[in-house]
Amino acid sequence: MANLTYQLLSVTVVLGAVQLISGYSFNNCIEDPHLKGQSFNCIRRKNKNMKDIINDLPQSAINLTISINPVWYIPNRSFVHLPNLQHLRIDHNHLSIIDQYAFQNLSQLKSLNLSLNNISALHPFLFKDLPNLTFLSLSNNKLKQLPECIFSTVFQLDTLIMRKNLLMNFSGIAKSVSHLKNLRVLDLCFNSLSSLSHSNVPLPINLTMLYLCRNNLSTLGCKPSFLGFIQLLDLSYNSRLPTMAFQDVDLRHINYLRLRSTSVNIVEFLSISNVYAGHVDFSGTGLKNVSLLMELCRLLKRKLKGIKNLGLGNNGIANLTDTLYHCPTITGALDISRNQLKRTSFCLNFLKNQTQIKSFSSEHNHLTSLPSCKNQKTYFPNLEELSYRYNRILSVNAYAFNHTPNVKTLKLNINIIAFLHRKALKGLKNLETLRLDNNLLTDLFNNTFEDLLNLQILNLRNNRISVIFNGTFLNLTKLTTLDLGGNKITHFERSGLDGLKSLSKFYLDGNNLKTIDTSLYRAFQDTLTVLDLQSNQICFLTESISYSPFMNLSKLSDLKLDSQRPHGLGVLPRTFFRGLHSLKSLYLTNNNIFHLAPDAFDDLTGLRFLTLDNCCVGVTQLQPGVFKNQRNLSKLIVENMGIQNFTKEVFGNLTQLHTLQLNRNVMQSIPVDALDSLPNLHYLDVRNTPLSCTCKNSLLKNWTQYNLNVQVVYLYNLPCPHNEKLKFYNFDTNVCYIDLGEYLFLSTTLWIFLFTVTPLLYVKLYWKMKYSYYVFRSWFSEQWRRLREEEENCKYDAFISYNSADEQWVMDQLLPKLEGHGSSFKLCLHHRDFELGRDIVDNIVSAVYGSRKTICVVSRNFLRSEWCSLEIQLASYRLFDEHRDVLLLVFLEPISERQLSSYHRMRKVMLKKTYLQWPDSDCPDPIQAQELFWNQLRRAIRAGSRLKTEENDKSRGSETEHIESYTSDENYYLQP
After folding, report:
1. C-alpha span between 310 and 266 (Å, rounded)
2. How far apart (Å, rounded) are the C-alpha atoms in residues 136 and 163?
3. What is residue 507's predicted lDDT score, i.e. its pLDDT?
4. Confidence of residue 715 (pLDDT cuts 50, 70, 90)
5. Per DSSP, which regions of 77-174 are E strands?
6. Confidence band (pLDDT; 50, 70, 90) for 8?
7. What is d(CA 142, CA 132) in angstroms, rounded to the nearest whole number?
8. 775 versus 570: which is more confidently predicted?
9. What CA–CA distance (Å, rounded) separates 188 from 177?
10. Where are the beta strands (DSSP E) in 694-752?
11. Beta strands per DSSP E along 864-919
12. Looking at residues 478-501, what average pLDDT do you find?
């Protein structure tokens, strides 16, 4: 028990010390280095207490994210010290309870995200202190209902998202939002609403977007004018919603209506509703029956002269012939995605009267090929966007798009195209974007793209292309972005990249390139800005190469060379980056570079961002001058590089460095002069680095505490390597500032003086000193007499000294017998009566001298406890020095003489004092034995406190060995 008390007191002292630290760091948050003092992320922390997570954030904070934490409770006034917050995210936590005044003082807050928590109830006035709130998300919680006045003060609310809850009462929701005149978006999808009954409460007049998808609506149950101002209404996936639910409901203002997967008969719905038919999305409305689709088209044609967009997706349509011939003219987009189409009637013949169409989408169908349309008579001159993504297209034949000559965006990605005819794209002279990624293409020919004179973006990622032949891109003079990543390219033929005169972004990551072809700097001298060569097989075994593959790429600003397979770059040649004066970002992550020349980066004078993490584990030390020309570098990532020494000679020239990440390195110290040479440093991350808690880092410790310009990430969590319970920020540095020579000189001088002067004083002043000793002794005895008189009126009858392992016996047996059952004793226990915050020894002394008796509950655990030893020592001092009967020994278990032989003071007490033995279970009558035990203990506590010593007994003419004399039948329990 005593040990537990001391630990609690120690924790209190440590927590108090944390608050005194003024260093620029945060316990559980990271400040965005580019928005200093404004934006903070508190993500993946282990702390459950909200206030502990954010209590050290500055008042200037504007953006705050608290995500993926075990936080379950937000108490009152949690954010009161952050009055300037405008955007607050508390999502992906375990929140279940939020106090009424949790958001007090956040009058500037504009957006609040409480999604993905366990909130089941909200206080009616939770948001009363948020007058400027415009966005609120409560999605993915467990709300079943809302208090009527929950939004009574958030008059500026524009968007309210409550999807994926358990809401059942729409009337209550309508009441809670009815006064929000600025509410524009209300999302109630994925709830349990069965109707829109609203008790004569209207929706806000500015509410234009209402999402009610995936509820249990079986009727609307609202007044005809209730939805009169809604422009976007999503009722999809309410499988029990019937057609007649819309009888007389005003839908004139609807611009977009979704009825997917409901029970609505769409033809009947259009007949009874006043909705504008052109604003209805017919996807998922059960139109797989050809007769139903034809009936819909005829109805639309009677109602409309033309229709802008027609959505027929997710209807299970298996065939389209001349069905859409009966529809009104489509001038915008036709979407027949997510059906069961196996072909689109050869070159869109089913659209022969829809030549005005601008966009056609047939995604997620079962198309297997695109046939030749060379002899197609029907053309679609206005078609600009064509998408066949997510099908099963294996081949694209010649002139497959001859009927759509003006297409600007063609999406053929995510199929299984293995055959692309040389003339498949013939005639697409206006094409600007071509997506062929995620297919099975193996070859590209010199005439595959010959007609794509205006192509700007070509995506061929994740195919099986191994070689780029001569002239492949010869006519693509306007191409700005070429993505060849994720293929099997081993090389380019000499003229393979010719023609790409405008190329700006070139992605070659995930290929099998072993060298960087010289055609790079011949082809893109004045245009290339981004080059991605990640995850290839580029490797150098020697430091010197005869050329630089980037020599003439004068405008290259972004170069990625990460993760070269299988063993990394190896050596970084001296001239490798020659000519890259405009490079801004360089990525070298995950390369096993075993030699990094000190002049490797000399030409990169414009570099702003450099990442070397996990790249140079074999490099034991960065060479001095390696960053000498990177004076414009603002962010440097050197994580897990095996850096042993952080020196000014290596990093001292980075005068513009803003962010430095040194995580997971092996240096044990960081010289402060090296950090001081980085005047613009604002962000330093040294997590998982074994910085020693020794005098070698004493200056660094002070620097981290008092340098208010640099954020040291999670400074208060950095452990000392030799003991993770100790923290780097507060290890003891006092010894580091002691002048040992001076102290040795002074101590030696003092000892010499004492040995010289003491004999002289003894000879000359012996009797005077002896006389002074007796005067002091007399005065001291008088003080003890006064102290004893003051203590006569004791606060407690007995102080119980015991080990925490015996606490159950004390609480279950001793405490009820002495403080209960008619006994009037007042006991002093550690956990209950010690004064919190007071020194432990003071508490023990006060307990011993403030109690009439001290009862030591002796066991083997008691004998091993240092604190229990101190308590029995203090009580024995009082016993022997004051001659006061203050100590009672109670043995819980038999302890042999041999085991007690090393506890001299206890044996001395046992020779002078009678002690009690707790009866074991083997005695003849344990119940009677225990009752006699308690009687003897009560009698001993009541006994007077003046001890009868042998001297006092002799003066009375009698000898007494013990304090009390007991009857012979009690001697079984009372041991001499």
Report:
1. 14
2. 12
3. 97
4. confident
5. 87-89, 97-98, 111-113, 135-137, 159-161
6. very low
7. 26
8. 570
9. 13
10. 711-712, 719-720, 723-727
11. 887-891, 915-917
12. 92
Taking each helix axis from N to C end, the angle separating 2-18 and 840-849, rounded to the nearest 10 degrees, works out to 140
Contacts of 758 by beta carbon, 8 Å cutoff, 6+ apart: none
pLDDT at 946: 45
pLDDT of residue 609: 97
Residues 6+ positions from 105 with CB-CB distance below 8 Å: 77, 79, 80, 82, 83, 129
Q: Which two tokens stand for residue 883?
A: 């001659």
In the block, tokens 């109830």 appear at 121
Contacts of 837 (CB under 8 A, 6+ apart): 9, 12
504 contacts 482 by C-beta, under 8 angstroms: no
Please write the tens of the pLDDT for every residue from 610-640: 999 888 765 557 888 899 999 999 999 999 8
Cα-trace Rg, the chain? 43
- Which stretch, 101-115, 506-520, 698-712, has highest mean pLDDT? 101-115
Alpha-carbon dihedral sign for residues 97, 99, 105, 110? positive
Q: Give me the residue label for tokens 């620097």.
A: 703
Predicted confidence (pLDDT) per residue in 365-374, tens digit: 999 999 999 8
Query: Is cis: bond before 566, omega within 30 of 0?
Result: yes
Type of residue numbered 67? S
The stretches of 215-263 forming alpha helices (DSSP H) are none
d(CA 367, CA 342) in angstroms, rounded, equals 4
How many CB atoms are located within 10 Å of the residue 329 CB? 15
**354, 329 in Cβ contact below 8 A?**
yes
The whole-number pLDDT of residue 681 equals: 92
Q: Which of 124, 115, 173 is nearest to 144 (CA)?
A: 173
Q: Taking all residues of the chain, what is their mean pLDDT, rounded to a whole number?
A: 85
Distances (CA, A) of 204 to 14, 209, 623: 54, 11, 68
Q: Which of 662, 666, 604, 612 is nearest to 633 (CA)?
A: 604
- pLDDT for res 97: 96
* CB hemisphere CA count around 505 (13 angstroms): 8
- Only one residue has tokens 């309870």, namely 97
Ranked by mean pLDDT, which of 29-38, 79-88, 221-230, 885-894 comes out on top? 79-88
Of 375, 256, 360, nearest in space to 313 by CA? 360
Q: Which residue has the higher pLDDT, 901 or 310?
A: 310
Q: pLDDT, tens digit, for every residue of 876-890?
A: 766 666 666 778 888
CA torsion 961→963→967→973, rounded to 10°?
-100
DSSP letters for 347-409? HHGGGTT-TT--EEE--SS---EE---TT-----TT--EEE--SS---EE-TTTTTT-TT-SE
Helices (H), 556-684: 648-651, 672-676
Element (H, E) at 755: helix 740-791
Write the CB contacts of 502 (distance below 8 Å, at least 6 apart in sequence).
477, 478, 479, 480, 527
Asked if residue 71 has pLDDT above 60, the reply is yes
Quick one: pLDDT band at residue 694, thresholds 50, 70, 90? Answer: confident
Q: Please name the residue that has the structure tokens 């005169």.
A: 501
Could you tell me whether strands 395-396 and 369-370 are parallel, antiparallel, or unpaired per DSSP bridges? parallel
Contact 96, 120 (CB under 8 A): yes
Q: What phi, psi does 302 have (nearest 5°)? A: -70, -35
Q: Name the one residue in this structure whose structure tokens are 């039948």.
A: 969
Confidence of residue 259 (pLDDT cuts 50, 70, 90): very high
User: Which domains does the chain carry?
Assistant: 305-366 (no CATH), 796-975 (3.40.50.10140)
Task: State percent of the chain over pLDDT 70.
Answer: 86
16, containing H or E segment:
helix 2-18
